Write the structure tokens for this entry.
Amino acid sequence: MSDSGGLSGDAECPPPAGQFTCTYEYQVPIYCDLETDYCKVDPTGDLYSLACVTRPATCEPAPENCDCLEDPCADNYCGVDEELGGITVLCPLPE
């Protein structure tokens, strides 16, 4: 903490236990549940919409294979964090 009571430095904060960070570039993050959610990033204007979406109960995505999410945005981009296992889906830019 800084002398003014605020946080000092600009490093990323670790997520709470059992959660992973859902964010895009410099937006304020939200935190999704590692066991049940995936992070959905949707370009809706100047800021991207961030949402924790419940994944199907039988879905265990692997890097480069997120078909079990049944989310059309996963065809654009789906990544699985190798360290924590968090899943992020990025919807395409609107045409």
